[in-house]
Design brief:
CATH topology: Growth Hormone, Chain: A
Structural class: mainly alpha
Distance between the termini: 61 Å
Order of helices and strands: HHHHHHHHHHHHHHHHHHH
Number of helices: 19
CATH architecture: Up-down Bundle
CATH class: Mainly Alpha
Largest sheet: none
CATH superfamily: MFS general substrate transporter like domains
Number of domains: 1
Shape: globular
């Protein structure tokens, strides 16, 4: 029996899930932290580095579609899927470090890492809902904050291990992912979602499950949140991918030479964790919708300001702009997910979030490929490509909600 003092100091389930998410998602951008080393070793440029990121996204899309359409997230224990996915992701990430000798085999291993991540990020969201149903906005904000830090973490590891081979940084991410999987395996599921559903003969081919999951889009609140989420996704991962390029080609490169490109990239991407927490705290006074829409508008404005003034902006204003952009670009993500989670039946939360996430990441493949290619051709003026995402997301959300109000009045 545990003493009261031990119980008081035991971390909450949401904290355990958030830390596990931080460790597991360090796999996501582990290759980008070694971009300069890979460019020198394999004689590749920005476009090819973008392909490596797109390979992860493609694997993630494939994995989330499989999980959503087969209802894996609602048939099996989320903690077990998370743990197994962390083990698989750590293994394929290590294979990338050990066995990649060029772009082709590297993209295969990164695809498999992305497939594994499909069992980490969406399942983390479901676990949060299972433990914290009454404070989903804040709990998901903590979760996405840790995902953001996990995304930034390889850049910090690269900076701290500047004298080490790039493979060491990649392998460090694998070790962290294994620890995260172990934490979730030990935690298990929360009490606030229905138990796993047994597969029946009628589930063969998961046809019924597919129809049920896709029916979530018939609900106007879910569809409105999805519009905002999709617009946000057009910008988010493309921005995270090109941050090191933006740092190295602007006045930021001369602001703090001791930080290096990796150190400054960590700070800019990691600022998103603070943005998520701030957004979660705002949900104590406001609904998730205005918080999400405000963050989406702010990130879009930052992108437009950067595109207009990057060539003439002094170092300190540029640093402030990039930190605000880094904070706002992801702050809307947990709030859109919270809006989606509460807009669909409880027994479909895992699969509905998985398929929404899958579509969102399909969008990122296009934006990452286009932005890295245009950066090579046009320079930093190509950042204009990111701005339509927030604009479309805002317009889609507002018009969908207004359409529902007109229907209700009629």
């Amino acid at each position: 029996m545990h003493s009261p003092s031990i119980a008081r100091h035991r971390p909450t389930p949401s904290t355990v899930i958030a830390v596990a998410q931080l460790l597991g998602t360090s796999l996501w951008f582990s290759a980008n932290s070694a971009a300069q080393d890979l460019a020198r070793a394999w004689h590749i440029g920005n476009s090819e580095i973008g392909w490596l990121t797109s390979a992860v996204q493609a694997g993630f899309i494939t994995g989330t579609l499989f999980m959503a359409l087969a209802a894996m997230a609602d048939r099996f224990r989320a903690s077990r899927i998370f743990a197994l996915s962390a083990i698989a992701g750590a293994f394929f990430n290590a294979c990338f470090a050990w066995f990649s000798h060029g772009l082709a085999d590297a993209m295969l291993y990164r695809f498999l890492v992305g497939f594994s991540l499909a069992g980490i990020y969406p399942l983390g969201m479901k676990l949060i809902v299972s433990w914290e149903p009454r404070r989903t906005g804040m709990a998901l904000a903590q979760l996405v904050a840790m995902l953001t830090l996990g995304t930034a973490l390889p850049h910090l590891l690269r900076q701290l291990g500047a004298g080490l081979p790039w493979q060491s940084v990649i392998l460090a991410s694998s070790v962290l992912a294994l620890i995260g999987g172990g934490l979730i395996y030990a935690l298990g599921e929360g009490p606030h979602l229905p138990g796993t559903r047994k597969r029946t003969r009628n589930d063969a081919g998961a046809i019924g499950s597919r129809a049920a999951v896709l029916s979530a889009f018939k609900a106007r609140p879910f569809r409105a949140a999805a519009w905002g989420y999709f617009g946000h996704m057009w910008e988010l991962y493309a921005f995270w991918t090109i941050v090191p390029i933006l740092v190295s080609h602007t006045a930021l490169a001369h602001l703090a030479p001791n930080w290096g490109i990796s150190g400054m990239s960590f700070a800019i991407i990691g600022a998103g964790a603070l943005g998520c927490i701030a957004g979660g705290m705002l949900t104590r006074r406001f609904d998730s919708a205005p918080v999400a829409l405000s963050a989406l508008a702010l990130s879009g404005a930052c992108g437009a300001v950067f595109a207009l003034f990057w060539s003439v902006m002094p170092p300190l204003p540029m640093a402030a702009l990039m930190l605000v952009w880094g904070a706002s670009v992801v702050a809307d993500s947990p709030q859109f997910s919270a809006l989606s989670a509460r807009s669909c039946p409880a027994d479909l939360v895992g699969s509905a979030l998985a398929i929404q996430t899958s579509i969102g990441f399909a969008i990122t493949v296009a934006s990452i490929s286009l932005s890295t290619d245009l950066l090579t051709r046009m320079g930093l003026d190509a950042v204009w490509l990111l701005v339509p995402g927030p604009m479309v997301g805002l317009a889609g959300y507002v018009l969908t909600v207004k359409g529902g109000r007109r229907t209700a009045r009629a």
